[in-house]
Design a protein that fits this description.
Helix content: 25-40%
Order of helices and strands: EEEHHHEHEHE
CATH architecture: 2-Layer Sandwich
Number of domains: 1
Number of helices: 5
CATH topology: 60s Ribosomal Protein L30, Chain: A
Length: about 160
């Protein structure tokens, strides 16, 4: 068993819609980033890469490479799953916490779990999606952006 930790954060801005785990959670908001700025997909990818000791997301998809401009982050996550699998590991579970002040996760939780499970090739029961706020403290509490934390286990 191998464990990896992932983190990602993005500032609000850019063009909507706001996607988390490939699920549209807000039509009228977006996050700034090279790709579609899906903080959940990015954090999960980094956690998996960490578990397999294969670097980080920037090693494989550098933000200064224009080929990744506007890329679908769930597609990037699928590529990471293939890299991890090629290294002899298989995702077995993920535990995700989204940190946001105004974006509500509960209405989208099951969709996010289903999308992640499908891309990771694991059961929905092995994907945990939780949310919290910073109670108006700091930049996330001021609703300037959002973040995601992930622990991934690979066998």
């Amino acid at each position: 068993m191998r464990v990896g930790f992932g983190f990602d954060a993005h500032r609000f801005g850019g063009v909507g819609p706001l996607k988390l785990a490939g699920v549209i959670v807000a039509e009228d908001r977006g996050l700034e980033g090279t790709s579609d700025a899906d903080v959940v997909a990015h954090a999960v990818a980094d956690a998996l890469l960490g578990a397999a000791a294969r670097g980080d997301l920037g090693d494989h998809f550098p933000s200064d490479d224009p080929v990744w401009e506007g890329a679908d982050s769930m597609h990037l996550l699928a590529r990471v799953v293939a890299l991890v699998t090629d290294a002899g590991h298989a995702p077995s579970s993920v535990d995700l916490t989204v940190i946001a002040q105004s974006v509500r996760i509960a209405p989208h939780r099951q969709g996010m779990r289903s999308r992640l499970a499908a891309v990771l090739g694991i059961g929905v029961d092995a994907v945990s999606v939780k949310a919290t706020s910073t109670d108006r403290m700091g930049s996330i509490g001021a609703d300037e952006g959002m973040a995601a934390l992930v622990v991934a286990v690979c066998s």
